[in-house]
Write a structure and sequence with these properties.
The complex is a heterodimer of chains A (602) and B (354). Helix content of chain A is 32%, strand content 20%. Chain A has 602 residues and is of the alpha/beta class. Chain A has four domains: 157 residues, 3-Layer(aba) Sandwich (Rossmann fold); 106 residues, Translation factors (Elongation Factor Tu (Ef-tu), domain 3); 119 residues, Up-down Bundle (NADPH-cytochrome p450 Reductase, Chain A, domain 3), CATH 1.20.990.10; 144 residues, Nucleotide-binding domain of ferredoxin-NADP reductase (FNR) module (Rossmann fold, 3-Layer(aba) Sandwich), CATH 3.40.50.80. In chain A, helix 7 runs antiparallel to helix 8, helix 16 packs parallel to helix 18 and helix 17 crosses helix 18. By secondary structure, chain B is an alpha/beta fold. The longest helix of chain B is centred in the N-terminal third of the chain and has 17 residues. The chains are: A alpha/beta (602), B alpha/beta (354). Chains A and B meet through helix 2, helix 3, strand 5, strand 6 and helix 4 of A and helix 8 of B.
Chain lengths: 602, 354
């Protein structure tokens, strides 16, 4: 039963671990390459695959990103824990030929650690690795493709040596479409459904909500907390999570999937000549996973609004797929160029650098767009990725509620229309005073951990929206009687974006908080949180060296975390008399035991 | 076979010399000489084979010697191969396509003597295919020198330009002709020189991954049979898998799997794209039918170099198309496509753009 006969057509199994969808996209690309070579193929996320079958597989390709601090993506965490069990026998994977392709960013210290470790562990378990681990790097001028393209070539060389039969058949050419992964079975009668908001019954949740079963939370308030005259719109949004089985502590994170706005949905349907009201049932052609949360039957409007990411910046794979449908000579030539290796520079200049959306690309290629077939919708357009926010409140202060602090993302590139963040813009547009608003969401454990001891002081540096997890921590700690709290907050102007100022003032008056503020634009010189950290060197040294204090940084990445770390190390040198090296080591030691933690985002 | 005797040692303007060379090499390839006529052992020694694409780089040769060299290479590579000949000064300007040559042979003629600059070496590395080989000869000195370098310095220069497997094949006498031309071109005064022939290879991956490819079996041998899976191991695995949600298990510390090599980050030099970087040096493209001046400008710049595509110069009809089809300098950049003839208002920002 366990030893399968070699299939008449060779099969490639591609398993991926993907956080933002890039590794998934890469996995799907190579799955299509296998299809073009007349191989059977299956592409699946690692945690969706029954790992018991791995011992009887013949050929597997692993495509894995590294995320966070050298960690595996969410959709391979279970697999990861399983693979490293000491009890797994060394020869378990002796039947397996496999290869590992890693996606990472060498500006992080733990560059591609997941791929490197996976490669070694597979070897330990007796698998034959067909070639060395591929280490794609976002830092390369040409991005991950610089490694992926030649690695794919070598991979196919090895596979054709293993399965010579695939060489005897002519591959399906790159400009011919492959069969679609899904079939849309349209219903003849268009039933007018009032319930088109995807509510599909609001069950009483018995289990803890997760990505596959989010909780449909009612939005209770959505208030702008930055001054109307301030250039940046920042909002405090609150959800009702009573009876949801959701529990969280300070430092945890809430995730949700945004929707496309009506204008974009209409334009998309027009370009592809889709009837938004059309209803369909989705069937998969080849064991692909059906997207989560689609009602049955589903309307095209619902699919486009909630599932298809049509405002993402398209990847190269999108142009490879468009090419298959194009018959217009001018457009086809351009699509071929954008799909080719030498054309990647041009593609980046056209798309990546300007952050051109998929919808805008479709408008540039009207003839090809009109030829797209509806069955390919889920092959062409990725699913909308969930976005995560640090939870900004504690149930100790706001029972049954969950609050987040959201800065609306908007910026200009050379495109005439300004670019907008999908999730922040969508959240800003929801108005609970105009009717009930419900958002499917779920909570994940965050990386920040706060000390349980009452007397341990906590020093938090959280400029801008970075203050969100610290507000949660402060509300929680004060409710628990822990009063040794220090907060460094920075923003641009005391009058414009000093959110929660009233709340902080009250805490300070009650002796529950020491607050140091830096308003960068309120005077001629720029004053940032790191300057305040330096000013308080005596206090910080006393707390850290003598009272076992914990130190936290949260907020926007780029310069701030480094500058704050530098200021902290200067404190060690100044107040503690340490040398440069010793203060470095002190910080490293603090990090190792969890007394220095940071959560920064870009 | 008719040959035109051309004075290849002509001084600049170089384009004329390049044209001549181009023509006689073409003549050569359209009617390749018989294998018997031309000595080709040296080329066979190097490992050049039929179908290869070879770039011969020269500096101040005698015309006969270069012609013979090109002929003997042509004989080996046959009709499917390609020989290109390039003067070392022209190499950077000619902008050959990346990764297009199996071989670059530089200054192999006995009376050639050039010092290869780092730009030249990088350019040679760029035009080589991954896995392709560079063979060059260069005068080297036994002592420290400003103009001429030691063999070790030459080796490091080759490595710095991104090549691997750098080996000195031979070291011989520098001919007096070569010495004379070196003196006149560089002002070199000394005389403690010899001539080194060095070989180098372009790594198999373009850039990025630093690991070597390890074959687990050769291409020609059939796949070795896999050992049978021990039934106990299989059972252990299956049991564990069925228990996958059990958190109370002992785990191997994954950090212990990594060795020093794994902890290293890629060399920053390996992360640069082979072509020149962003900004002013970025190549501008004229759209297909445009005559807003850009196509003409580009043609002026690249005169004398073979162009791969013809750009017909009809009136520009492309502005109404999307950005994908517009000129780099089109004022409508960043705006969506519109119907031809539709009135589109450019906002003041684009109009004031220089």
């Amino acid at each position: 039963m366990l030893f399968l006969q070699r299939m008449s057509r060779p099969q490639l199994l591609v398993l991926y671990g993907s956080q933002t969808g890039t590794a998934q996209d890469t996995a799907q690309r190579i799955g299509r390459q296998a299809q073009r070579r007349h191989m059977q193929n299956q592409v699946a996320a690692l945690d969706s695959y029954n790992v018991a079958n791995l011992i009887s597989e013949s050929l597997v390709l692993f495509v894995v990103s590294t995320t966070g601090q050298g960690d595996p993506p969410d959709n391979m965490k279970n697999f990861w824990r399983f693979l490293f069990r000491k009890s797994l026998p060394a020869g378990s994977l002796c039947q397996l030929d496999c290869a590992v392709l890693g996606l990472g960013d060498s500006s992080y210290p733990k560059f591609n650690f997941v791929a490197k470790k996976l490669h070694k562990r597979l070897q330990q378990l007796g698998a034959s690795l067909l070639l060395s681990v591929g280490l794609a790097d976002d830092q390369h001028d040409l991005g991950a493709d610089a490694v992926i393209d030649p690695w794919f070539t070598s991979f196919w060389d090895r596979v054709s040596a293993l399965y010579p039969s695939i060489n005897s058949m002519t591959a399906v050419p790159e400009d011919q479409p492959l069969p679609p992964s899904y079939k849309f079975h349209f219903l003849d009668d268009v039933i007018e459904k009032s319930d088109d908001t995807g509510r599909a019954g609001i069950p009483r949740e018995q289990r803890v909500p997760s990505q596959s079963h989010p909780f449909l939370a009612r939005m209770t308030s959505n208030q702008r907390v930055s001054h109307p005259s301030h250039f940046q719109e920042v909002r405090l949004i609150e959800f009702d999570i009573s009876d949801s089985n959701i529990e969280f502590t300070a430092g945890d994170v809430v995730s949700m999937r945004p929707c496309n706005n009506q204008e974009d949905v209409e334009q998309f349907c027009q370009l592809l000549q889709l009837n938004p009201k059309a209803q369909f049932i989705l069937k998969t052609n080849n064991n692909s996973a059906v997207p989560l949360g689609l009602p049955e039957p589903c309307t095209l409007r619902h699919l486009v609004e909630r599932c298809l990411d049509v405002v993402a910046v398209p990847r190269r794979s999108f142009f490879e797929l468009l090419l298959c449908f194009s018959t217009n000579e001018l457009e086809k030539e351009k699509l071929a160029e954008f799909s080719s290796v030498p054309g990647q520079d041009e593609l980046h200049a056209y798309c990546g650098r300007l952050r051109r959306t998929t919808l805008e690309v479709l408008a540039d290629f009207p003839h090809t767009t009109a030829e797209l077939q509806v069955d390919y919708l889920l092959d062409l357009f990725p699913q909308i990725q969930p976005r995560s926010f640090s939870i900004a409140s504690s149930t100790q202060a706001h029972p049954g509620r969950l609050q987040i602090l959201v800065a609306v993302v908007t910026y200009k590139t050379k495109m005439q229309k300004p670019r907008k963040g999908l999730c922040s813009t969508w959240l800003a547009s929801l108005d609970p005073t105009q009717g009930e608003v419900r958002v499917p969401l779920w909570v994940k454990k965050g990386t920040l951990k706060f000390p349980p001891e009452k007397d341990t002081p906590v020093i938090m540096v959280g400029p801008g929206t970075g203050v969100a997890p610290f507000r949660s921590a402060l509300q929680e700690r004060i409710a628990q009687g822990k009063m040794a709290n220090v907060l460094f907050f920075g923003c641009r102007s005391e009058s414009k974006d000093f959110y929660f100022s009233t709340e902080w003032r009250e805490r300070v008056e009650e002796g529950q908080l020491s607050l140091f503020t830096a308003f960068s634009r309120d005077q001629e010189d720029k004053i940032y949180v790191q300057h305040r950290v330096k000013e308080q060197s005596k206090l910080l040294w006393e707390l850290i060296a003598n009272r076992n204090a914990y130190f936290y940084i949260a907020g926007n990445a780029k310069q701030m975390p480094t500058s704050v770390c530098d200021a902290l190390k200067e404190t060690f040198e100044l107040e503690g008399g340490l040398s440069l090296e010793e203060s470095d080591q002190m910080l490293v030691a603090m990090e190792r035991v969890g007394r220095f933690q940071s959560e920064t985002w870009s | 076979m008719p040959f035109r005797f051309v004075n290849l040692a002509a001084a600049p303007p170089y384009p004329a010399a390049a044209d001549c060379l181009e023509k006689f090499v073409t003549t050569l390839l359209s009617d390749p000489p018989h294998v018997d006529d031309v000595p080709n052992e040296p080329m066979m020694d190097l490992g050049i084979k039929a179908g290869d694409k070879v770039l011969l780089v020269w500096s101040q040769p005698s015309p006969l010697a270069l012609k013979e060299l090109a002929e003997s290479v042509g004989a080996v590579i046959g009709a499917n191969g390609k020989v290109a000949v390039e003067n070392i000064e022209m190499l950077l300007i000619s902008a050959h396509s990346s990764s297009s040559y199996d071989w670059v042979l530089s200054c192999l003629l006995t009376d050639n003597s050039s010092v290869h600059s780092s730009e030249t070496l990088e350019e040679m590395a760029r035009v080589l295919k991954p896995g392709g080989r560079l063979i060059l000869e260069e005068p080297v000195t036994g002592t420290y020198g400003q103009i001429v370098r030691t063999a070790e310095k030459l080796t490091s220069a080759l490595k710095l330009s991104g090549l691997t497997s750098v080996t000195e094949i031979s070291n011989g006498e520098l001919s007096s002709d070569a010495l004379r031309s070196l003196r006149s071109s560089t002002g070199y005064q000394g005389n403690t020189l010899s001539r080194a022939r060095v070989s180098a290879t372009k790594p198999d991956f373009e850039v990025g991954s630093s690991s070597q490819l390890k074959l687990s079996f050769g291409k020609k041998t059939p796949k070795p049979a896999k050992p049978a899976l021990d039934p106990n191991a299989a059972e252990m695995w299956t049991l564990s898998a069925n228990d996958i949600n059990d958190d109370d298990v002992d785990l191997v510390d994954s950090d212990t799997l990594l060795d020093d090599d794994d902890l290293k980050k890629p060399d920053p030099a390996s992360l640069r794209a082979p072509s020149c970087g962003d900004g002013a040096a970025k190549k501008k493209k004229a759209c297909k039918d445009c005559s807003c001046g850009l196509a003409d400008e580009l043609e002026q710049e690249t005169k004398g170099v073979q162009k791969t595509a013809d750009k017909p110069k009809s009136s520009c009809g492309s502005c109404y198309l999307g950005d994908a089809f517009r000129c780099a300098s089109c004022p409508y950049t960043g705006m969506p496509a519109f119907k031809p003839g539709e009135k589109v208002v450019l906002d003041k920002n684009t109009l004031t753009d220089a």
